[in-house]
Amino acid sequence: MLRTILKRTDILALAALVALSTQATAQTATSSTSTHNHNHNHSHQAKEPVLVNEAEIQPRDLSDWEADWQSVYPFLQDGTLDPVMEHKAESGKKTAEEYRAYYETGYKTDVERILIDGSSVTFFRDGQPVQGQYTNDGYEILTYASGNQGVRFIFEKSGGDAAAPQFIQFSDHEIVPTKVDHYHLYWGDDRAKLLTEVTNWPTYFHAELTGAEIAAGMMAH
Questions:
Q1: Mind listing the pLDDT tens digit for each residue in 12-46?
Q2: Full-model pTM
Q3: 212 — alpha (psi -120 to 50), left (phi > 0) or beta?
Q4: Which among 127, 101, 102, 103 is positioned nearest to 113, based on CA atoms?
Q5: Predicted local distance difference test score (pLDDT) of residue 145
Q6: How many angstroms separate the CA atoms of 114 and 116, rounded?
Q7: Considering only CA atoms, which of 19, 66, 16, 28 is closest in space to residue 143?
Q8: Is 189 helix (H, G, I), strand (E, B) or coil?
Q9: How far apart (Å, rounded) are the C-alpha atoms in residues 81 and 87?
Q10: pLDDT tens column, 194-215
Q11: What is the dihedral of CA 184, 187, 191, 193, to 10 degrees?
Q12: Looking at residue 159, what DSSP letter applies?
């Protein structure tokens, strides 16, 4: 397997049940030695693999995610999302408790808030900020074990605090510039290793939403 990194030539209505997926171990990135993360086909059973048309992918800027964001993980921990787990169990292959355990691993993070403003990305842990400046580092087409494909949009740190991660990678089910209601974010200092993450996909929604609103949107999808 080879990895193809597609760079720009000159450098989820909540779609959230889509965000509550069946995590699949990714097997290849398009022409890649890397494995991938989160199978965004989730609990929906697609009859045919969902493939990405490479010709339709467009570079994206941080402005697509510019906003104040909150982690959904605390709402899983405090029981706000329990109705969502029960809803999934009604038609899924796991019990509500099994779904909850699965998302406990998937959503887990100590970064409770992310603020994106221009090229600045600030991570908050226990209210304490760590900030970095980020520039576009292209994107990768990834192929999951299910055969479905997705795209990660990648940004590399160009300045800011030493403690800020060197790379951040967005996955939000989109392949062209657009504003989104939620996203999964991966961060770390090793670009290639980060692409192999398959079990933990911290997920963020707009900070102004309540937990009840997020849960209602997930169940309405």
A1: 333 333 343 433 334 334 433 333 344 444 444 44
A2: 0.79
A3: alpha
A4: 127
A5: 81
A6: 6
A7: 28
A8: coil
A9: 10
A10: 998 978 999 999 999 999 999 9
A11: -80
A12: E
Structure tokens at 106: 């998937």
User: Can you tell me the distance from the alpha carbon of 129 to that of 115, in angstroms, rounded to the nearest whole number?
Assistant: 9
Each residue's pLDDT tens digit, 180-198: 999 999 999 999 999 989 7
Residue count of the chain: 221
Question: Residues 6 or more apart from 215 whose CB is under 8 A from it?
Answer: 75, 80, 81, 83, 84
Which residues does 155 contact at the CB level (< 8 Å), separation at least 6? 62, 121, 134, 135, 136, 137, 167, 168, 169, 170
pLDDT at 139 over 70: yes
Amino acid 20: pLDDT: 39
Place of tokens 């990895």: 3
Q: Are 201 and 36 in contact (CB under 8 A)?
A: no
Q: Which residues sit opposite 143 in a β-bridge?
A: 28, 149
Residue with tokens 């969502």: 84
Nearest 10 degrees: CA dihedral of 103, 124, 64, 7? -90
d(CA 39, CA 206): 22
